[in-house]
Amino acid sequence: MHSEPVASRSAEHKDSRESRSGTPQLDAVSLAIIEQLQEDGRRPYAAIGKAVGLSEAAVRQRVQKLLDQGVMQIVAVTDPLTVGFRRQAMVGVHVEGDLDPVADALSAMPEVEYVVMTAGSFDILAEIVCEDDDHLLEVINKRMRALPGVRSTESFVYLKLKKQTYMWGTR
Q1: Which residues touch 86 (CB under 8 Å, ≥6 apart)?
Q2: Which of 13, 25, 54, 161 is deepest in the core (most CB within 10 A)?
Q3: The three-state (H, E, C) secondary structure of 10-59, written as one string
């Protein structure tokens, strides 16, 4: 957390640029804004502006740009059990051939919350959130395993969620 302003008025227009790889390059002010929102996603723009040395309007513009670039999302994170979802699982997927079409198809499934291509025992890991065991079985057996290129899956059913945070800060 930044307790002192980290930018001057001239920094209002100098926020982030894209690198050659297309990844946004974030300056210290944008990183400080992200940290402020990670602490409290409902923090007022005026309070963020005071902490980072920008006007409320400049913070609003930067936040919108960060959202538009896909750098961050502002969402309400829930405990799935409290909102009617009784089963969560991480599913390891072995793929034959190109990973991208399988990862894209998994990403399009509404029950799939997280998709990552990996190196190691599995080609893809997908976290799914379902209403119950029947729903979980339907997603894995009828939809995931039916995707072209999916060779096999292995499911890791969650018994209890002990920690889930999104406070890793910025670098």
Answers
A1: 130, 131, 132, 133
A2: 54
A3: HHHHCCEEECCCCCEEECHHHHHHHHHHHHCCCCCHHHHHHHHCCCHHHH
56-77 residue pLDDT tens: 999 999 999 999 999 999 888 8
Spell out the SS3 assignment of the chain.
Answer: CCCCCCCCHHHHHCCEEECCCCCEEECHHHHHHHHHHHHCCCCCHHHHHHHHCCCHHHHHHHHHHHHHCCCCCCCCCCCHHHHCCCEEEEEEEEECCCHHHHHHHHHHCCCEEEEEECCCCCCEEEEEEECCHHHHHHHHHHHHCCCCCEEEEEEEECCCCCCCCCCCCCC
Cross-strand bridge partners of residue 33 = none
- Positive or negative: CA dihedral 14, 16, 21, 22: negative
**Beta carbons of 87 and 157 less than 8 angstroms apart:** yes
b (16+ CB within 10 A) / e for 64-78: eebeeeeebeeeeee
Structural tokens at position 116:
């990552």
pTM of the model: 0.71
Which of 19-23, 49-53, 161-165 has maximum average pLDDT? 49-53
**Two structure tokens written together for 2:** 């930044």
